[in-house]
Amino acid sequence: MIDNYTSFVKKTEILCNGLFLDEKLIDHYKNEGIEISYGRKGGAGPIGGRYFLFENQAIVNAALWDDPSKSNLVVQENEDGYFLIYDVKNKSEHSRLKLVQNPTFYNPEYVTTDGIPMKKIALVHGIDCLSSTIYQKCVYQGCGEGCKFCTIELSLENGATIEEKNSKQMSEVITAAKKEGRCNHMTLTSGTDETIDKGAIRYIELLEGVKENFPKLPLHVQIEPLEDLSYIDELKDAGANTIGIHLEVLDQNLRNTVTPGKSR
């Protein structure tokens, strides 16, 4: 069994390099549940990648590549439920990974009552964390001061999501995900609004609707630092169990460069 430190090192390598899919094994990959989609498509979490489990249950989201120059880590055949990952650079076994199957509600026939594919409303991160960007725009992107690492609007441009989600849509996807055991908690994020509440009001309206339907579902929200801290209390009162602050980086010089809009 792999130990935690080793899985941490190997997970970092996979995150940075991704995994190469051997063209000779494409049919094998498909039979084992890997949908062939290469590279990152923008956005966060599982967009353009697949989740795998190490033997110690540590989880990693890996980009998949069809170009061997992209990664020295090659996905070989599935044996006893685990794919062997071979390191061609060091000519040795790198790790053994179990594929996390995509949820059934990703299939195109699963749509909300207003006709939106459920996959465009929320995605599963890892095993059972349902996640969604409730508003796929950001004021800083619009004025040319977006965070350098952020791809929040690319998912929208690629047609992988919709601009804004509501509590009814979210509740329907939660229901579908729970039936599969894929939603034990939920993370919500959003682009920043130009209003003083930074987008808190959007959250509050959605949180109240979701909590009405799922009062025991733990909800985590992420928002830019607020000058008016009363909005933090309002988010809590609306149903947020935990609140993450999108500070991004502590060093002010780096903030000026990497997060120009948020650095002021």
Automatic annotation (TrEMBL):
Statement: the UniProt record of this protein carries the keyword Nuclease: no
GO molecular function, one term: metal ion binding
UniProt keyword annotation of DNA damage present: no
InterPro entries: Aldolase_TIM (IPR013785), rSAM (IPR007197), rSAM_sf (IPR058240)
CDD domains: Radical_SAM (cd01335)
Domain Radical SAM core: 122-264
Pfam families, sorted: Radical_SAM
Keywords from the named record: Iron, Iron-sulfur, Metal-binding, S-adenosyl-L-methionine
Protein name from the UniProt record: Radical SAM core domain-containing protein
Organism of derivation: marine sediment metagenome
